[in-house]
Amino acid sequence: MDIQIVPLFAAGIGFVSVLLAGYGLLGYLSGASDSAKLKERVSGTTVKRSDALTAPLGNAVKSVVDFFGRLGTKIGPTETEEIDKGRLRLIQAGMRKPDSYKIFQGLKGFLAVGLAGGFLLVRFLFIEDMSIAMTAFGTVTLAAVGVYGPEYWLSKKINRRKLAVGDELPDALDLLVVCVESGMGLDQAVDRVCQEMKNSGPIISSEFKLLTLELRAGKARIDALRSLAERVGLDDLNSLTSLLIQADAFGISVGRTLRVYSDAMRVKRSQRAEEKAAKMPVLLLLPLVAFILPTLFVAILGPAVIMSMDMFLKMNSH
What we know:
Layout: H1 2-43, H2 49-75, H3 80-92, H4 100-126, H5 132-181, H6 186-196, H7 202-216, H8 221-232, H9 235-250, H10 254-317
């Protein structure tokens, strides 16, 4: 009788646990709603219910991010040159927040310690017969993955962003040519292109927007153009900014310079697309060999193999 009661007792405990969890969740949600209403009364503004419900989650994420920032401050490099280099890489990847470098360094340290510590925990709990050499090798390898994995991800993100800018730049130059030749100044043309390319070229639009803000803040055009080239890190954009700086210094027509360079960029984009198209047969060779050819061999040679096996079985039976 005692053994038969155990499943019923476990089911009862599970039911009570789920019920209490439900009541707790309802109380939590109602508490969030009450806090939202109180905030509305105090501030005199309207707070969305969805914002009130997601506020605790946002606070938790903020706490985690702050933890990574504090950790990155303690374990990150202290040399100014290394810090500036790391911040520039993050800016080229599109991450411009002031604390991005500290958070990134803290994430690297957390991953290194977490992966190595997790491996050691699994080794001592479940794989007790592993040798010391293999343990050390696995620990060092996972720690290296935690340190260099984010760096690899950041490099790939930078390269993808550069490719996207390279695809968006010819269209932006065409619009710049139209704006400059219609009588606009270079600063006004950049601002106009920034507004027109918000949807078709969001990355180059954001960079031009930042360039416009720097010019409005009183930064010299030469310094603003150099900052633009440094933020993106694309060779084509570096050449463009150098041409614009020289045209501004020597009084050369900016419209003619932009037209010549936009033609060159358009041809280069076409060549890049043709290069990708030429690589497609080589890239398709691997799935062709791995998936298509074996099925063809089975479909073509399968009946012959089956007939041969039947024939040999009949011969052996006689």
